[in-house]
Amino acid sequence: MIDFDGDLVVGWRDDVDLGVAAARREGGESPAHVLELLDRPAIARADRSG
Q1: Measured over all CA atoms, what is the biggest interatomic distance in the chain, rounded to whole angstroms?
Q2: Total-model pTM
Q3: What crossing angle do the helices spanning 8-26 and 32-39 adopt, rounded to 10°?
Q4: 3/10 Cα distance (integer angstroms)
Q5: Residue 23 CB: number of other CB atoms within 10 A?
Q6: Which label site among 1, 11, 28, 29 has the fewest CB atoms less than 10 Å from its CB?
Q7: CB within 8 A of 44, min separation 6: which ones?
């Protein structure tokens, strides 16, 4: 599970969802930028300070 706070999650999720949906419609793979976003490590809430 990837967890983000703030406005970033809206743009990030929309971009990933649209990329995945487009790839599924075309029967191909997800775009490279979507795969890059999915490969980023998640930051756990417990590890955040401040």
Answers
A1: 44
A2: 0.31
A3: 130
A4: 12
A5: 15
A6: 1
A7: 3
| C-alpha–C-alpha distance, residues 1 and 41, integer Å | 10
**In angstroms, rounded to a whole number, what is the distance separating the alpha carbons of residues 27 and 9?**
26
| Closest-CA residue to 13 (of 25, 29, 24, 2) | 2
How many other CB atoms are there within 10 angstroms of residue 47's CB atom? 7
pLDDT (mean) for 4-15? 55
Q: What is the pLDDT of residues 10-46, one digit of tens each?
A: 555 666 666 677 777 777 776 676 667 666 665 444 3
Q: How far apart are CA 40 and CA 42, in angstroms?
A: 6
